[in-house]
Amino acid sequence: MSSIETIHVDGVWLAAAAGETREVLDPADATTLQLVSEGSAKDADAAVEAARRAFDNGAGAWPRTAVAERSALLRRVADLLQRDREEIALIESRDTGKTLEEGRVDVDDVTNAFRYFADLVMNESGGRVVDAGSPDVHSIVVHEPVGVCALITPWNYPLLQASWKIAPALAAGNTFVIKPSEVTPLSTVHLIKLLVEAGLPAGVANLVTGAGLPVGQRLAEHPDVDLFSFTGGLVSGTKAGAAAVSGAKKIALELGGKNPNVVFADACATEEGFDTAVDQALNAAFIHSGQVCSAGARLIIEESVRDRFVAELARRAEKIKLGRGTEDGVECGPVVSQQQLDKVEAYVASALAEGAQLRCGGARPEPSDVRPATGYFYAPTVLDGCHREMKVIREETFGPILTVETFTTEDEAVALANDTEYGLAGAVFSGDTARARRVAARLRHGTIWINDYHPYLPQAEWGGFGKSGIGRELGPAGLDEYRESKHIYENLRPEPVRWFAG
Question: Which one from 102, 254, 302, 405 is the annotated catalytic residue?
Fold first, then answer.
């Protein structure tokens, strides 16, 4: 299989400087999907240099492009995304293992993000007027782009996470270098091609495919990078963030979550309510095989309805159809890699050793139950009788594992939900509106759903408390991450101060 050039520097597609390549595997059957360029620190340096020139060079540089022109380019990209919707969805499905329908939803969400930031930057005023307390002073606060941005994206939602960074970065007038996960780089390559087709000047958007070491590390520590934005795991994110902070860069980190889904008995008081709560618990835990930073992997359910609820949950989980994401009728694809499959197996083994009760799953499916049989598949798993001391409760498993904890009082439910180092997202299901809102207000997580799970809005901020990260993406704050505030104080009637007598 011939390799494709996946390093994009200063408007040119390149092979890696060292000539290295990497196999991108199809997680559905473990075969090679594509050979791509395997970048190095040298490639990262070249990309940063190109981004620096595109930011700094003269009146025609990207940050000095009219806001209306930047907004129009983002809208052209959105239109191109919709033009290529099926192609991109297929790329994303084959690369990550998610279903084709999930891939289509991702493309639509990415389109919405580009359109949102195109509108947001156009609707802003020319600056915030500050009352200086004198008619002889004109004082305003304006926003300017940060500069060169290094963007690191994860393997589970490569296209979506790229858009959450690229769209506001370009809207604000920045240039960037993006490094997608080496496991799932293909949709990001396509997105860069669309940026070029939309008319983005050379050097504004640069791409280096390759591993976190050395490419991501070099981008984090590079002296000409002004902002470092990372989405991924806690361990690698904190290391990269530390390297970025040592150079006094602006940083934004989204480091995952261990997210509670709190279900009160009154949410199940009717058959319709019970059915909805069970269905949403499945959705929360098993979409994209649980490989979602906001997955509701911790079911925290009121004791009085626990037995019936968990029995029905396990019954439905056993019926989830596994297979290649592009096949009709498949509801859940594989996990992304052999490494991830090994981690999932290890988490289940540790939970069972610590006393959890296996209600369903807990193993790879039989070869006769899934096609292709050689893929990285793991059966949706429900573990009952879990408690806070278990590793599977404390750590982000990033796989099709749902744990069950119980409570008897509202205070106990809140305490369990907040008993985590993370704080990205969570949900409350209750038939009592006052209770649901009261509990939502007490939960220390960046996004709280009430009687729902997983939807997000590009106009609403996304990010977490605690070890879930630093900063916010999406919403007005998501644009502000890519800007610096500047105060301009103008004296309209200058005269000597006479502070010094001489």
Answer: 254
Q: What is the pLDDT of residue 126?
A: 79
pLDDT of residue 194: 98
Per-residue b or e along 229-239, where b marks 16 or more CB atoms closer than 10 Å to that residue's CB: bbbbbbebbeb
* 196 vs 173: CA distance, rounded Å: 16
pLDDT, mean of residues 211-238: 96
Structure tokens at 123: 């609707």
Pairing of strands 381-384, 357-360: antiparallel
| The residue type at 71 | S
Q: How many CA atoms lie within 13 A of 375 on its CB side?
A: 29
The strand pair at 128-129 and 31-37 is best described as unpaired
What percentage of the chain exceeds 70 in pLDDT?
Answer: 100
What is the pLDDT confidence band of residue 347, given thresholds at 50, 70 and 90? very high
Report the alpha-carbon distance of residue 228 to residue 236 in Å, rounded. Answer: 14
Chain-centre distance for alpha carbon 331: 22
DSSP secondary structure of 105-136: HHHHHHHHHHHHHHHHHHS--S-EE---S-TT
CA 265 → CA 262, 278, 304, distances in Å? 10, 12, 7
In what helix (H) or strand (E) does residue 102 lie, and over which residues does it extend?
helix 100-122
User: Which carries the bigger pLDDT value, residue 373 or residue 257?
Assistant: 257
* Residue in this structure with the two tokens 């070890």, named with its chain if needed: 467
pLDDT at 33 over 80: yes
| SS3 (DSSP) at 74 | helix
Taking the C-alpha atoms of residue 9 and residue 46, their distance in angstroms, rounded to an integer, is 7
102 has catalytic annotation: no
Give the up-direction half-sphere exposure of residue 346: CA atoms within 13 A in the CB hemisphere: 11
Q: Is the backbone peptide bond immediately before 214 cis, with ω within 30 degrees of 0? A: yes
Q: Which two tokens stand for residue 489?
A: 């104080």
| Spatial distance between the Cα atoms of 55 and 106, rounded to a whole number of angstroms | 30
- The whole-model pTM stands at 0.96
How far apart are alpha carbons 370 and 331 in whole angstroms?
A: 12
Distance CA 109, CA 78 (A): 10
Residue 124 clears pLDDT 90, i.e. is over it: no
Return the residue matching tokens 């300017």.
144
Q: Would you say 265 and 304 are in contact if contact means Cβ atoms under 8 Å apart?
A: yes
